[in-house]
Amino acid sequence: MITLRALTKRFGETTAVDELTVDIGPGRVTGFLGPNGAGKSTTMRLILGLDRPTGGQALIGGQPYRKLRRPLHEIGALLDARTLHPARSGRAHLSAMAASNGIPDRRVEEVLATVGLDDRAAAKPARALSLGMGQRLGIAGALLGDPPVLMFDEPVNGLDPDGVRWIRQLSRSLAAEGRTVLISSHLMSEMQQTADWLVVLGQGRLIADAPTAQVIAGSGLAVRVRSPRPTELAALADRLTAAGAVVESGGTGELTVTGSTVERVGELAYELGVPLHELASHEASLERAFMALTADHVEYPAGTGGASA
Ligand SMILES: Nc1ncnc2c1ncn2[C@@H]1O[C@H](COP(=O)(O)OP(=O)(O)OP(=O)(O)O)[C@@H](O)[C@H]1O
């Protein structure tokens, strides 16, 4: 269990994490989501004692990280897989970690087998490892102390579909063993398949803490509308917005509408004389739910020209 209580971190004028109170429970995969700069990495660093909070507490099994007597046995983390000594082999890296934490060396073989790194891969210097192998090695390190809490920051970034599937299966089996598994990711379709529960941050604050299915259902059905007449379609979009629906433009001549119904959109289109080439309801997705949840919390919404970095 990870317990955050009024956790706050300020960097000068920036409040990266703002009075965050949430429990991340065992036996499930919790997806940690939020737009860029929402405070996910800072929260993870605070949990691991790599940064000091400005206020509040981050506890692992009821203790702050710095009070853990055998940290590797309490929490395993993958933050940035690229921080390994470049000339050291994966096996040597894990052996050094094991030795300095009183873990028998045979455990190194066990975790290498769990993450699917064979002898040849484990003997390579870290700089010669592919991104996927580096992630596997980072996860092997996280598993070394057989901890009840695991935390992976963007574990599927840059992985091929096999690697993505492997992380999904591993996370789910670790949770099925009763462990607490917290994973941050920007890949919504992946989180929709992997996470049982979601914790969503916006500008350092908690904006959702609920089962994945509930978050997705909350976005409601989406209605897709296509018309060959962009000007008339824009008028339809205005009317829908005025009526309280959320309208996203999907390119020229296309709209995605939430907070309305196919019937209502069809009737309004008829009233305004908008010819339609498509009017269909689509299953709600985490992607759409996320957009709706975080719409007021993005630092540089698309189209403002601020996200040029
Ligand atoms: N060491 C630091 N010094 C100053 N500001 C920082 C520092 N670390 C993070 N921040 C700021 O705190 C905010 C939260 O950043 P953080 O990296 O935690 O967000 P994130 O949700 O992990 O973002 P991303 O999805 O882009 O990785 C941002 O505004 C960031 O610029």
Automatic annotation (TrEMBL):
SMART domains membership: AAA
Key words of the record: ATP-binding, Nucleotide-binding, Transport
Domain ABC transporter: 2-228
Classification via SUPFAM superfamilies: P-loop containing nucleoside triphosphate hydrolases
PROSITE patterns the UniProt entry points to: ABC_TRANSPORTER_2 (PS50893)
Record-level Gene Ontology MF annotations: ATP binding; ATP hydrolysis activity
Stored Pfam families: ABC_tran
Source organism superkingdom: Bacteria
The family this protein is said to belong to: Belongs to the ABC transporter superfamily.
Protein name: ABC-2 type transport system ATP-binding protein
Lineage: Bacteria, Bacillati, Actinomycetota, Actinomycetes, Micromonosporales
